[in-house]
Every structure is written in C-alpha cells, then in structure tokens.
Amino acid sequence: MPTLLPCGPVNGSWQIPDRYKVGKVIGSGSYGTVCEAWDHENDRKVAIKRMKHLFDDLVDCKRILREIAILSQLDHPNIVKLHDIVQPSNMRSFDELYIVMELCDLDLKKLIKQDITLGQEQIDTLLYNLLIGVISALGRHLPQRPQAS
C-alpha cells in the first residue's frame, strides 16, 4: 500500500495515497468535501470526496454505503464513474473515507444555481441525458433503500 500523506487543500489533514495531488476544493455538501486532484498513476484529473465522521449518524452512514454500492455497479457515459475507494490506514478505527470519482465540468446543483436562461435545445439535451442515465441505472439491479411499512 502506498504511503499516506497529509495533503489536504486546507490544513494538510487529507490522508490519501501519494499518487494523488490534491488541488482546490470544488464542492461541499452534507456528506463531505470534494477536491479536484491529479492521479499520477493514471494520468488524469479526478474528484476526491472526503467523508468525515462516517459513523456519527447511522442513516447518513447507510446512505454513503448505498451511494458507493450503486456507483460501483454503474458504467455509463451519463453517470459519474467511481474510480477508487482509498483504503483506510487502520480498518479498526477509521472514521473517514475518500472516494475517487470522475471529474465533471459541472454538476446539476451548480447548473441550477447559476443565473442563466437555457434555450430549448439546451433543456432538451439536458433532460435527454438525465433520462438516459436514469434509464441505464434502472436497468440494473441496484441496492435499494428499504421501504417503510
């Protein structure tokens, strides 16, 4: 296993293999922070999502597990690809996880927040691509959330 280096963008607290050179923060949300990075082993830009305090909330923990399980089974150009899950240095006591994904130019959340008006052709293309991705995902037997009774 490669040496883990503290190489986070803010205070050097990210523990990821030295094959990744972390750049700027490109997003954050309820489950963690996402940074742009360069994967020296595969010569490509990637996004690394850091999820801290994994086990503080059981519901969030299950959602994160479901996200990883689903992304690991999908392979479609309209769905972000999961490239790697960084193995924790201590499997008995880890409390954060790093997942390495395809780096996208823009995500839907950022697009919606922008103050722009899309033309009909752009709207049609966006909806078409979203629907093709959803249809592809639905065509697989993916882990689902238990239904409330």
Order of helices and strands: EEEEEHEEHH
Task: Note the beta-strand portion.
Answer: 25-35%
Return residue spans where pLDDT drops below 50 for at least 5 consecutive residues. 1-8
Helix content: 25-40%
* Multimer state: single chain
**Sheet with most strands: strand arrangement:** 3-4-5-7-6
Average the pLDDT over all residues and give the rounded result: 83
With helices defined by DSSP (H or I, 4 residues minimum), what is the helix count? 3
Beginning-to-end CA distance, first to last residue: 45 Å
User: What would you call the structural class?
Assistant: alpha+beta
Number of strands: 7
User: What's the overall geometry?
Assistant: globular
- What does the main sheet amount to? 5 strands, antiparallel
Q: Mind telling me the C-alpha Rg?
A: 17 Å
InterPro entries: Kinase-like_dom_sf, MAPK, Prot_kinase_dom, Protein_kinase_ATP_BS
Pfam families: Pkinase
Organism: Prorocentrum cordatum
Domain Protein kinase: 20-149
